[in-house]
Write a structure and sequence with these properties.
The complex is a heterotrimer. Chain A is mainly alpha-helical. Helix content of chain A is about 75%, strand content about 0%. The termini of chain A are far apart. By secondary structure, chain B is mainly α. Chain B has two domains: about 80 residues, Up-down Bundle (Four Helix Bundle (Hemerythrin (Met), subunit A)), CATH 1.20.120; about 40 residues. By secondary structure, chain C is mostly helical. The longest helix of chain C has about 80 residues. Chains A and B meet through helix 1, helix 2 and helix 3 of A and helix 1, helix 2, helix 3, helix 4 and helix 5 of B.
Chain lengths: ~100, ~170, ~725
């Protein structure tokens, strides 16, 4: 009924949008939002491959669950960093955080 | 066009629309809220994929925890309460181009794969995905190790986040 | 003594003086006594060898046909060898005799002349004549003659000279003759310039060397030509019938002379230089700057005689194509003319000279002219005879003059008046009383020179030359030589009168003293020969005396030639002429000069004669100034400093120019600026322009990395997979 390609295209689009957000947004928190979108796209991919492959093998879902955990950990640490940076530098504009150079 | 397909299309458009709003809206609180709607859309997609557990976990963890966390973070890092500065940096066209290219590249690569347009097999009757999932996650012969490591990772993240964001004064 | 033994002995004769030279120079230089002992012993050994050889030569029957000859292969020349060796034939035996005696006498004389045994001078310098030493004697100070500072050096040089002369005499070929010739030329230079501190001595030495060199060049050309024509330089090989005939008939292309004539003339030019004939006579009077033993030995007895000996040796070549009684060949005419002209020319100069040695110098030139005129006329025996007698009495006269000068110097030291010239005859006078031995021996020598009849050797030899000239019809030569003989007697008597007779004209002459035995004994020995030597050559047809003793000289020396020279018929004319010119000249000389007290009264002090016909001045302008100009201006200034140094001086700036061009046009712009600074600038520019990439903004880093990923991925996909 629904071919796999639709899910994959959906995931790819979502991934592209998330990538766009990462590359383009000024606010650091907004960048992390984009990251979240990308992770969700990945998860959609994984689950659709589970459903459209061997359903009895739970590897796809397990992988998706681990991704959840990782995403959560990453968001928490990332936002903690953003808050810490905001306290120090009083800004969250990514362009102003440019010490990672010579 | 079957009903499932129509539902899928509606949900997909909804999700993608929300995602676009996430990355373009100026007001960050709005962005966070749009994220919530995107996540909802993704949860519905999971449900369409017969991954009920994933749908619920998506709502509980992503929307309930992560999106809330985002809202907190936005609030804690506001210099002034109005966001009237542009939210996209000056290279937005490069980012757009790359995003489009990425999408195009992914699709292009995938459509060369033979299984690109296959349809879903029926779920075997009596197949309990959740118990199977639980079994896989805790069985030593299966994925208990990644599961445990993931929990350690969460612990580390917890400690790290607290430490980093701790206000010393 | 076997023939072979004597021949080997001949090889050894020249060696002792050479050894003496080496020993003195290397070892005994500091020790004066040892030096003169070495030298005189060497001269004695050579004398002994010479006497032994002479005795054996005289003893041998028909010596001319089997002389003492020995040669060795020396220079390989392709198929053949150039041989060198020794030859004692009658001519060289006779010459060896007088060389041995005169050399030994002069060596002994030098001991006394250089004041051996006297103290070192007050301020004597090596290079200047000794000037006297002050000694305390009986309470008051006395200046006595001092010893020559360079005493040993003198003996070394005369030793080397003796070696050269002996080599020349004993050699059997022109090559070693020339070697001896040149060694003597060198020693002449060294000895004339013995007192090198005096500029006049230095200049005289150079003049002597240069002038004789001119002659030597032509002689060498002659030797080369001879070698080219015949392939040999040995006398015995050249003087064969066939060789002489060929040389006489082949025209040489020069002045219409035959090859023999041209070679003979070229060799004769060497003699003109060495024996101071006109026009190369200018060096001999100046050579009197040397010590008197040098003047005696080199410029009277031996070296100048060597020139005449060389011509006599080459007699067969000179007279090739001529025979007794025929008219003279052009070569012979040339030789005779030079000889006769020189004889009279020098005699005219001698009458105006006031220095005692100068008179003798011009006298030597004149007498050598006699000998050469004789050879030019073909009078072989007469020339050899006069050569030998002249050697004895001229050596005697020079040594006598040295003795006079020595005595006068004693007087000068006594009075302390150093402005008085001890050699000027007008400062002398009355010395017969103060220096008797010197007087009598000088008288004998002077009479021999003048040709005093019968009892002196000079008479017999000079008479023979005049007789030959007259008998062969060479009247021009006869008259010229007769006039020259007259002038000879005249100036000789002038010399004796001014020096010895009358009263002392200066205080210095009053205090003159006779010298030691080392100086007077040689005078006596030489005067013995000056008297007696003439008697070995009394012509056969001489009235009364001829025939009493055989003419040993004619027999002996005549054997040298292939054809024995004929004995002359006696003619009264030349004999009378000799008597008249000799006695007349002597009488006139005594008569004119017995009362003259100063040069102002001397009518013969004609400037033209006194200044030697201004020949020295003429040569200065004609030859010396141009030569000096050529070397100093043309060669040194223009060519060497201007042209060659100019080229060299171009190298420096040229190299500098090249270097700075490379520096400025290549090194600085290309290497430094373009490559060096350029690469630095490029690197800096690249760095400056790449640096902005590192903005520190992660979004831009992300974009960049994704772009690269796409590019690389696309390339890989399309190149590898598609």
């Amino acid at each position: 009924m629904i071919p796999l390609s639709w899910y994959l295209i959906l995931a790819a689009a979502l991934f592209g949008i998330g990538l766009f957000g990462v590359l383009v947004r000024r606010n650091a928190v907004a960048i992390l939002l984009g990251v979240e979108l990308m992770l969700n796209a990945v998860n959609i991919n994984l689950v659709s491959f589970w459903r459209y492959g061997d359903v009895t093998s739970m590897a796809g879902q397990v992988f998706a669950v681990i991704v959840f955990a990782v995403a959560a950990a990453e968001v928490s640490v990332g936002l903690a960093l953003v808050i810490s940076v905001y306290r120090r530098r009083n800004t969250v504009i990514a362009d102003e955080l440019d010490l990672l150079k010579w | 066009m079957t009903g499932t397909q129509i539902i899928f299309l509606i949900v997909a458009l909804f999700t993608l629309g929300s995602a676009l709003m996430v990355v373009t809206t100026r007001n960050l609180i709005h962005a966070a809220l749009w994220l919530v709607s995107t996540l909802f859309g993704v949860a519905v997609i999971y449900a369409l994929l017969n991954a009920g557990f994933m749908a619920v976990v998506q709502v509980v963890v992503y929307i309930g925890a992560i999106a809330i966390l985002f809202i907190f973070a936005v609030m804690l890092t506001r210099k002034d309460l109005r966001d009237n500065t542009p939210q996209m940096n000056k290279n937005w066209w490069a980012g757009a181009l790359i995003a489009v290219l990425t999408f195009g590249g992914l699709v292009f690569t995938l459509q060369g794969w033979s299984g690109f347009s296959k349809t879903a097999a029926a779920v075997p009757s009596g197949f309990d995905a959740i118990s199977q999932l639980g079994d896989q996650l805790t069985s030593p012969a299966a994925y208990v190790l990644p599961f445990e490591v993931a929990s350690v990772l969460l612990l580390a993240a917890l400690v790290g986040a607290v430490y980093i964001a701790f206000n010393k004064k | 003594m076997t023939h072979e033994f004597v021949t080997s002995l001949v090889w050894l004769i020249p060696l002792p003086p050479l050894l003496a030279f080496a020993l003195i120079v290397l070892f005994t230089n500091k020790n004066k006594a040892l030096s003169h002992t070495v030298a005189i012993s060497a001269a004695f050994l050579s004398w002994l060898g010479a006497m032994i050889v002479f005795y054996n030569a005289v003893k041998t029957e028909h010596f001319g046909e089997h002389p003492f000859a020995s040669a060795v292969n020396w220079l390989p020349t392709g198929e053949t060898w150039l041989k060198v060796g020794v030859l004692i034939d009658p001519l060289s035996a006779a010459v060896l005799f007088f060389v041995g005696w005169t050399v030994l006498m002069i060596f002994i004389y030098s001991v006394g002349y250089h004041n051996y045994g006297q103290p070192a001078g007050d301020h004597d310098h090596a290079g200047l004549p000794p000037h006297g030493a002050t000694v305390e004697e009986h309470g008051h100070k006395h200046v006595v003659p001092s010893i020559e500072p360079m005493y040993s050096r003198f003996f070394a040089f005369i030793g080397l000279f003796a070696f050269g002369m002996y080599t020349l005499v004993v050699s059997d070929n022109l090559l070693t003759l020339f070697v001896g010739w040149e060694i003597m030329g060198l020693c002449s230079y060294l000895l004339i310039g013995f007192w090198y501190g005096k500029p006049s001595a230095r200049n005289a030495a150079m003049k002597a060397f240069m002038t004789t060199r001119i002659g030597d060049v032509f002689m060498l050309i002659g030797i080369s030509f001879l070698y080219y024509a015949t392939g040999t330089l040995s006398y015995r090989e050249i003087f064969t019938e066939e060789t002489l005939h060929v040389l006489a008939s082949v025209p040489s292309g020069v002045f219409g002379l035959s090859a023999a004539g041209l070679i003979a003339i070229l060799l004769f030019i060497g003699t003109i230089g060495k024996s101071a004939q006109f026009p190369l006579h200018v060096w001999l009077p100046d050579a009197m700057e040397g010590p008197t033993p040098v003047s005696a030995m080199i410029h009277a007895a031996t070296m100048v005689s060597a020139g005449v000996y060389a011509v006599i040796r080459m007699f067969p070549l000179l007279t090739a194509g001529w025979h007794e009684g025929a008219p003279l060949t052009s070569a012979m005419t040339f030789v005779a003319f030079i000889g006769a002209f020189t004889a009279i020319f020098a005699a005219t100069i001698a009458v105006a000279q006031n220095d005692i040695k100068r008179v003798l110098a011009y006298s030597t030139i004149s007498q050598l002219g006699f000998m050469i005129a004789a050879i030019g006329m073909g009078a072989y025996i007469a020339a050899v005879f006069h050569l030998i007698t002249h050697a004895f009495f001229k050596a005697l006269l020079f040594l006598g003059s040295g003795s006079v000068i020595h005595g006068m110097e004693h007087g000068v030291l006594h009075t302390g008046n150093h402005s008085v010239d001890p050699q000027d005859m007008f400062n002398m006078g009355g010395l017969r009383k103060k220096m008797p031995v010197t007087f009598w021996t000088f008288l004998i020598g002077g009479f021999a020179l003048s040709g005093f009849p019968l009892v002196t050797a000079g008479f017999w030899s000079k008479d023979e030359i005049l007789a030959d000239a007259f008998a062969n019809g060479h009247l021009a030569i006869f008259i010229t030589l007769a006039v020259a003989a007259f002038m000879t007697a005249f100036y000789t008597m002038r010399q004796i009168t001014l020096t010895f007779l009358g009263e002392a004209r200066t205080k210095e002459a009053e205090h003159a003293q006779e010298n030691k035995w080392t100086m007077t004994a040689p005078l006596v020995v030489l005067s013995f020969f000056a008297v007696t030597y003439g008697w070995v050559g009394i012509p056969e047809h001489f009235p009364l005396l001829g025939g009493l003793v055989p003419n040993w000289f004619h027999e002996f020396v005549g054997g040298t030639l292939a054809e024995h020279p004929p004995v002359l018929e006696f003619n009264i004319v030349p004999l009378l002429t000799s008597l008249v010119v000799a006695l007349g000249g002597l009488a006139l000389g005594w008569f004119v000069y017995k009362d003259i007290k100063s040069p102002a009264e001397d009518k013969l002090q004609i400037p033209f004669l006194k200044n030697k016909y201004y020949f020295d001045e003429a040569y200065e302008v004609l030859f010396i100034k141009p030569a000096v100009w050529f070397s100093e201006v043309f060669v040194s200034k223009w060519m060497d400093k201007g042209f060659i140094d100019g080229i060299l001086h171009l190298f420096g700036p040229a190299t500098g120019g090249v270097g700075s061009a490379i520096r400025n046009y290549f090194d600085l712009p290309v290497i430094n600026q373009f490559l060096g600074d350029g690469s630095a600038d490029v690197t800096w520019w690249v760095g400056k322009n790449l640096r902005p990439i590192q903005t520190g903004r992660i979004q831009q880093y992300l974009i960049l990395s994704l772009v690269v990923l796409f590019v690389v991925g696309g390339l890989l996909y399309f190149l590898l997979l598609a």
